[in-house]
Amino acid sequence: MISYGVKRLVEAIPIWIAITLIVFILMNIIPGDPVAQLMDARSGALDKQVIEQIREQWGLNDPLYAQYFHFLQGLVQGDLGTSYQTRSAVTELLMERIPVTFQITLLGLFVAIIVGITLGIVGALYRGSWIDSMVSSFSIAGVSVPSFFLGLMLMYVFAVQFQLLPASGYAAGELKYLILPSVTLGLAVSGVIARITRSSMIDILKMDYMTTAYSKGISHFKIIIQHGLKNALPPILTIIGVQMGLLLSGAVITETIFGLPGIGRLLIDGILQRDLPTVQGCVVFIATVFLVVNLLTDICCRLIDPRIRVEA
Amino acid sequence: MRRSRFLIGLIVMVFLLSACSSGKSSTSSESTVTKTSETSSEPVYGGTLVRAAIYGDPQNLDPMLRTHGTNTSMVTWNIFEPLIRYDAAKGEFVAANAEKWEVSSDGTVYSFTLKKGVKFHNGREVKAEDFKYTMERVLNPKSASPNAGSLLAIVGSQEFMSGAATEVSGIKVVDDYNLEITISKPDNTFLNNMSLPFTAAVPKEVVEEKGDKFGQEPVGAGPFKFSSWIRDSEIVLEGYEDYHAGKPYLEKVVYKIMGDQTARDNSFASKQLDMMLLGDAQYQRYKSDPTYKNSIVEVPELFTRNLKFNLEKEGPWQDVLVREAINHAIDRETIIKTVLQDKAYSAEGALPASIKGYNENVTSYEYDPEKAKELLKEAGYEDGFTLPILTTSHPAFGLPAVEALSGFLGEVGIKVETEQVDFATLTDRLNNGDYSTAMSSNGGYTHPVEFLARYFHSKNKGASGNTSNYENPEVDVVLDKALQTTDDQEMISLAREAEEIVMKDAPWWFFNYNKAVIVHQPWVKGLEPVPTDIDFQDLTKVWIDESLK
Fold it and tell me: Which residues in chain A are closer than 8 Å to B421, comparing Cβ atoms?
């Protein structure tokens, strides 16, 4: 298992390089000078001599291949460069933001798993009934309703009308600031999990061993969880792994709406300000998360279901 | 079930309410500073002001590393104490760290006498040497400071920047409390630099101790001390007990970094925000809200929104008659009333209404489509032409306005072709002259000559500000004279003369001056209509009336 994990990580290196190269090319293709972004955008007054000096200082006058090679060199040493805008090390900026994004992503995932799996099981058990229709409607709504709309509605109801939770902000991880963003993120993903859980459970409920379990007089709850859900888990886990990507991309919007200082906002700000080192840093981080989550998903599936043979 | 019905009902209600709350017309079109926030009782000490910072995170609070933009200066102006400050209401400079200053008769030597007993937040007294260190730090190429260009007028700055000199000869420390700055030629706009955060003294020992971290834990001598900063979320400042002009009323100021207007609305409605800037869409709603209609502060800000013509690009707009025709063809008043919800003032001239020397009798362009047609005929474009417009999505000078003006231009035969880009791209293309016409907003300058020279002097063509690439030797001569005079009245009359020529040449379609609006909770007192930028509030005057909470 360990050698399989290491092999997968080594195989990912070209993907990492390709991603950073694509981002580097894109950021250099799109119009917008990072030095011009340093200036007050509204007065738009630039001094040519000073601009030239800053470009020289930051190595922006070097050929593009040299700039990219310099970035790769830094990456190997764990140095993602210095942000043009904040003048801080990008690794430092990421370390500040990672906890925030992880907090809302993991809480969102928790909400999504609890809501999605519960509704999926209920839908499967009451297949064809009005309850099943409600679950299906919820799943479609979860996928369809844009998270910015859902977020603002939750904010309006719980922060403005009932004044139970803060409308936005972040106070060093206080839970009350994370509830609305996490629910916004989680509900968007729970619809997909509910659908997959429902169909997976429907297949399992038809199995002979389920009938055998019932004939042994085991309690209904125990059968559903131990025999049913356990065997239905592999496709659910796979979809949860895939949905991590949706959670991360959803975090970009959610962080913006709720004023959370996470990776998503850092990336958006970086793109808007043409802050290449910051954008590269965020992309490397997100690509790494994707890769690790996919790897963990595969390993979990293999542990749960020994029939799955991953070719090492 | 009952809850879900309630929620569905609630969603429908929100839609209905938001549909009902837009589109109300207003009759207010005053072009003067308006203030409806009244202070009725004596100020009291204590309390926290929570304000929204809508332009995003300031990124770095070291004033050397950021240009004078709203998102940064609204914070740094409270942490740092410049030599002088600009009193926007009086339109003049007032004492700050310097108690007095003089300009030599030839306009090249500025002598500042520092106030004794001004202390940095670390307790050390501010001396003249600190200002010299601060300005040399800005000019040091290793700093990569975007503000260095503003100090190149100082004698010896070029030699220092190129490494040929170890100090800037034009910045002379006479003694602990006297500083002399010599500039290479008279320039009456130079003094303004001494009022901006990037020339405010920073303590050398703290800068050296903190290194790159200074911008995250800044120390200055301003009325508020830095307390904490959660990036992209909030910045907290505390009132400085030993501030030389007296302890501020507020105990704390919290800047909530909130880019999303709906989130701001929700926070304000739930009383988590004490004050915020309003957008066009919210303006009429708050203006007619019984709770908040008397808690609104508004002002014509020093920005002129415009459609600029690239005069170095081939096209019908090269002809002044065409530019005049376009200025006559568009009914800007109607666009302001409808699209901008009356949250702007019609632009009569190039200079914004709040600027010193504003001339309300300058040549301006009335809406006259018939005259526009005549001018187009005279210019040989009777059958019209296609006008490419580069724009952003900005609600006040972006796509919505372009869509509105294209209707007016269509009536005189001009077909508009719109290209929408983001701000970074717009800036880049304006600076590189890669456009035909573009919608933008220019200003922020308190000095009329600085404003006009930045955008209309040929020496600033291209990225230096004159992105229209407008060139008129007559304007250059008048502006040069206006920059060098030491007589205020002469400066104003020359600025007006230059503006008159510019207006006749019409390098822009003059659209509107921003009406900046702040709404605040009833317990916030002492907010002022600051035309420089309404976000640049003097927080030493602001206080909280807890009895109204």
Answer: 31
With beta carbons under 8 A apart, name residues in chain B contacting A180: none
Contact B286, B519 (CB under 8 A): yes
Q: Which of A268, A291, A288 is nearest to A279 (CA)?
A: A268
**Which residue blocks in B152-237 are alpha helix, DSSP H?**
157-162, 204-210
Q: pTM score, two decimals?
A: 0.83
Among B67, B161, B427, select the one facing A32 at the smallest CB separation.
B427
Q: What is the pLDDT of residues B19-76, one digit of tens each?
A: 333 333 333 333 344 444 444 578 999 999 999 988 888 889 999 998 888 888 999 9
Mutation for A interface: B8, B233, B255, B454, most A CBs within 10 A = B233
* B contact test, residue of A51, A86, A274 with most B CBs within 10 A: A86
DSSP SS3 for B55:
coil
Q: What percent of chain A has pLDDT over 90?
A: 27
Q: Does A75 or A311 have the greater pLDDT score?
A: A75
Q: Which two tokens stand for residue B406?
A: 């294209």
Q: How many CB pairs under 8 A join A and B?
A: 186
**Test mutation, B14, B227, B270, B439, chain A, max A CBs within 10 A:** B270
Residues in A touching B442 (Cβ below 8 Å): 42-44
Q: What is the DSSP string of B274-290?
A: SEEEPPHHHHHHHHT-T
Please tell me if residue B15 touches chain A, with a CB cutoff of 8 Å.
Answer: no
Helix (H, G, I), strand (E, B) or coil at B445: coil
Joined tokens for residue A88:
């801080």
Contacts of A266 in chain B (CB under 8 A): 232
Quick one: which of B129, B134, B132, B95 has its CA closest to B115?
Answer: B95
A194 touches B52 (CB < 8 A): no
Long-range contacts of B8-12 (CB under 8 A, 24+ apart): B10/A156, B10/A157, B10/A161, B11/A153
Q: Do B270 and A163 touch (CB under 8 A)?
A: yes
What single letter denotes the amino acid at residue B177? Y
Question: What confidence score (pLDDT) does residue B505 get?
Answer: 97
Q: What is the pLDDT of residue A309?
A: 55
- Out of A38, A97, A269, closest to residue B146 by CB: A38
Query: CA-CA distance, A154 to A145, in Å (whole number)?
Result: 13
Test A38 with B67 for CB contact under 8 angstroms: yes
List CB contacts (< 8 A) between B260 and chain A. Answer: 168, 256-257, 259
Average pLDDT over residues A144-156: 89
Asked if the Cβ–Cβ distance from B465 to A88 is below 8 Å, we say no
Average pLDDT over residues B371-389: 96
Averaged pLDDT for residues B322-327: 97
Average pLDDT, integer, range B413-417: 97
Burial B516-547 (b: 16+ CB within 10 A, else e): bbbbbbebbbbbbbbbbbbbbbbbbebbbbee
Task: Name the minimum distance, in Å, from the CA of B238 to any CA of chain A.
Answer: 17
CA–CA distances in Å: residue B184 to residues A235, B131, B251, B374: 75, 19, 44, 49
Give per-residue pLDDT as tens, B307-321: 999 999 999 999 999
Question: Nearest chain A Cα to B430, which residue?
Answer: A44
Reported as a single tens digit per residue, the pLDDT across B114-173 is 999 999 999 999 999 999 999 999 999 889 898 998 899 999 999 999 899 999 999 999
Contact residues, chain A, for B429 at CB < 8 Å: 31
- If one compares A215 and A129, the residue with the highest pLDDT of the two is A129
A189: number of CA atoms within 13 Å, CB side?
31
What is the model's pLDDT at position B306?
97
Residue B439 bridge partners (DSSP): B307
Residue A42 pLDDT: 44
